[in-house]
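Record format v2
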Amino acid sequence: MKSRILVFIFLFGITVILHAQEAPYFVTYDHHLEEPGNLEIATWTTIGIPRSGQNLFVAPFAEFEYGITGRWTTELYLEGQGTPGDSAVFTGWRLENRFRLLKREHWINPILYFEYEGINEATKILKEVVGNAEISSERNADLAAVHAHEIEAKLILSSNFHDWNLSENFIVEKNLSQAEGFEFGYALGVSRPLSKIASGNECHFCLENFNAGVELYGGLGSTNGFGFHQTAHYLAPVISWQVSDNSSFHFSPSFGLTNVSYPALLRFGYVYEIRGFGQKLARVFEGKP
Amino acid sequence: MTRIIFVCMLAVALISAQNTHYQPDANWRAPDEAAAKENPLAEKPELAAGGKKLFKRNCVECHGDSGQGLKKAADLQLPIVQNQSDGALFWKITNGNPDRGMPSFSGIPELQRWQLVLYLRKFKQIDTEKTQN
């Protein structure tokens, strides 16, 4: 069983995440969309550190992000979850679209986000936190048997001010498979690059390649009871490292702030960007070199 | 002789891959205040080397190695681009023109965007050299 989990982690782990000058957030979105024609392939992993009596889990997901136009980015996610001593399961897929509402940069830049999730109850990637929290001790096989069709919308507001980025996300989610009402959540992020000037030489470890910040995210209940009661919240320092021109590595330890949050989450990801992917693909179909 | 033929072929290839017909979008203009901003790094031309690195990372896929412009992207060597002020180019890099394929690069730190402007000025020399030959 252990070796199956290791193979599973490895398979997801080899797909990597990173991006040029991208904010280092894991949960919060800023207003920067993918450049048109670029494909970004990323792998992210969330490791949940348990309280006594709970199980540690490893939840990796792969992300494929494509810039359709300068104002429309689409993303496909494939996710899984493995629990040592239990099993590793595929937990579903998500399709997400982000639209930039305004043509120019403003003090506050709004982005609309819509997502469909075809997932099951074993999902633990915690790509966002909404509603009320319940930490389940059911086995993966039972959780994976319960399917959920969910739709989610976010209003993303983001501002750049003297190299600082400040982003606020307001989240509403509806599980179409159950009568849970609408669930709410939030994510806030602030970050900045560690150096303002780019040096002339190629360097991997110089400060200009690092971006650091902090995120705060959590649930706000649902239409059945809005507020902080029984909700999970996390505070998470975040850092990203531009490893090369087209790849980056992200890392974040997150700390649970309430007794229904996981005590800690360790998150990391690797992003690889294929520039001009759309154009390259078009050339293949047109038969040009 | 073969070297001369090779250089000529390369020059033809470069020029033909260039977006010389580029016409700027008349509605994409920096406000006067932004266009009047001076490059705070103007006295530090050595920082253009960092601009070159940023250009390679973020811009060549559309504008080409020498800023010549691939497909719809602007030919940054053209006088119609180079005659704009540093402030106007900085504003265009910051805001982009997403409906015509130029992304916004407001996520790049401010001084690094000015480094890009320093580097863009190198393309002016390429154009002058070409017209002189």
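Chain B touches chain A through 34 residues (CB under 8 Å).
Chain B has one domain: 2-132.
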